[in-house]
Amino acid sequence: MTVTWEELGWERVAAGVGRCRLPGWDCTAGLVVGDGAALVIDAGSSLAEGALLRSQAVELAGQRVTHLALTHPHFDHVLGAAAFAGAEVYGAVGVDALLGARHAREALREDAVRNGLDARVADEAVDSLAPPRHHVSGEWTLDLGGDRQVLLANVGPGHTAHDLAVLVPGSPEVVFCGDLVEESGEPQAGPDAVPSHWPAALDRLLDLGGEDALYVPGHGAVVDAGFVRAQRDALAARFGVSR
């Protein structure tokens, strides 16, 4: 018997498109199902969480996970990536160098442990983490088979220097925003944020999806264009950015 999205704790956002909110940091992971291929968006905060995401994605898609897109290089979005062995991994250009650098990997581990991840779990995930093989500098179209194409767009910098969004055309169109958009709390601006460019990144998200799209934030409930626009204006005011 075919399992439903809801039975596995996923929210079906559009036909063949869904997301789940992971426990702990309320981080979103996404799934886009094509004809013979499946894309997962973000990998969770540990190898165990990544393995669970992968097994659920396989069950929902009825096929293996062929592609993994990482929206930005924070621990709760990337530390499960090694669980997706065999998948083609995509990230914004520069993420490969960042995740391959020893000091950056140490900082990633420290951030994870500081936020409550068990040190041994963090060590295991960081030790097995490989940089993305595919580097998106502008836009990259993935063909997932059938009529399913997905657009990867390097829309940052903003929340980080390496923000990747995922546009899934359809009715409605769906935009996975990573942490450029957050619904369950105020957007977090850490030391790697680029506040002066963040409002412009949200403008690019709105240009991608348009007024009728559904926007999936990195944390929290699915939102509409009005929410993204209001968050854009709030960030501009917060950081003193003019148009």
Characterise the protein shown here:
- With 243 residues, the protein is of the alpha/beta class.
- It is built from seven helices and twelve strands.
- Strands 1-2-3-4-5-6-7 form a seven-stranded mixed sheet, covered by helices on one side. A five-stranded mixed sheet has the order 8-9-10-11-12, with helices on one face.
- The longest helix is centred in the N-terminal third of the chain and has 15 residues, at 47-61.
- The radius of gyration is 17 Å and the shape is globular.
Q: Give the averaged pLDDT, no decimals.
A: 96
Q: What order do the strands of the largest sheet run in, or round the barrel if closed?
A: 1-2-3-4-5-6-7
What best-fitting shape do the alpha-carbon axes yield? globular
- Biggest sheet details: 7 strands, mixed
Stretches where pLDDT is under 50 for at least 5 consecutive residues are none
Number of separate strands: 12
Termini separation:
53 Å
Order of helices and strands: EEEEHEHEHHHEEEEEHEH
Helical percent range?
Answer: 25-40%
**SS element count, helices:** 7
| Derived structural class | alpha/beta
Radius of gyration: 17 Å
Strand content: 25-35%
Any key phrases for this structure?
7 helices; 5-stranded mixed beta sheet; alpha/beta; globular; 243 residues
